[in-house]
Amino acid sequence: MPGELSGKVILLTGGANGIGRECASAYVREGAAVAVLDTDGDKAAQAAAELGSDCMAVQADVGEGPAVEAAIHAVLTRYEKLHAVHNNAGTASPSKPLDQTTEHEWDELMRVNVKSLFWTTRFALNALTAGKGSILNTASMVGMIGQDNHAAYVASKGALIALTKAMALDYAPRGIRVNAICPAGVWTPMLERWCAEQPEPDRIRRYLNGIHPLGPCPYGDVVADAAVFLLSDRARFITGCILPVSGGAELGYRR
Fold it and tell me: Per the domain annotation, does 215 fall within a domain?
């Protein structure tokens, strides 16, 4: 039986580990060819090799326009088509309130988390239009409900949520759907680094394992399953959707 993404070509940024790696595996399992783009070329190559012969690795810094343009050109050279871009690459540091965040830290986080969409959209839009494709953005629940001591990251994810809605309106006439997924806590290398930055890392880990009413802090497979749906034809009339994949972490008065 064909998979949900059979025959599709997907460009996945930040695809070498964490949520991205889980999404890449799910996309391949559902029949897609995946171009794994990551700033770490070796890890991207390892991921692509493990995923199978229909996949490719692309090394690029998503915040640099010429690098993204070259990466998308390489994908189109190999596959001659592109059905989806999953903007998943991101950084979570620094973990600070706004007044303690340096200008460099602010600019770097916005460059990776937000400006990257500017570049991928600019250079992939024509191919996505030709394929009546879709764009998926990895946002975060913190962009909807806020989080203390994490101002720049929260701002960047809030920007992704607003940008998803604007893009959905702008590109609907082209037949392109634009959606976002919003995880709460998900155990990834990035979240592990964030925990290590906190004053009491063990307490933070216990906190993260307790905030989801449906159970302990999950791994990236729960996000990957939702991502498959939003990129599939089953979601063909869904756009501008900001989908929580949160285990209910945002619900009710809880500590």
Answer: no
Stated pTM of the model: 0.93
> How far is 51 from 57, CA to CA, in rounded Å?
10
Residue 164 domain flag:
yes
153 included as an active-site residue = yes
Residues facing 23 on adjacent strands: none
Catalytic residue among 153, 171, 207, 219: 153
What does each of the 255 residues of the chain score in pLDDT, given as a tens digit?
469 999 999 999 999 999 999 999 999 999 999 999 999 999 999 999 999 989 999 999 999 999 999 999 999 999 999 999 999 999 988 889 999 999 999 999 999 999 999 999 999 999 999 999 999 999 999 999 998 889 999 999 999 999 999 999 999 999 999 999 999 888 887 778 778 877 888 888 888 888 888 888 888 899 999 999 999 999 999 999 999 998 888 888 765
Query: Could you give the number of structural domains in the chain?
Result: 1
Whether the Cβ atoms of residue 141 and residue 246 lie closer than 8 Å to each other = yes
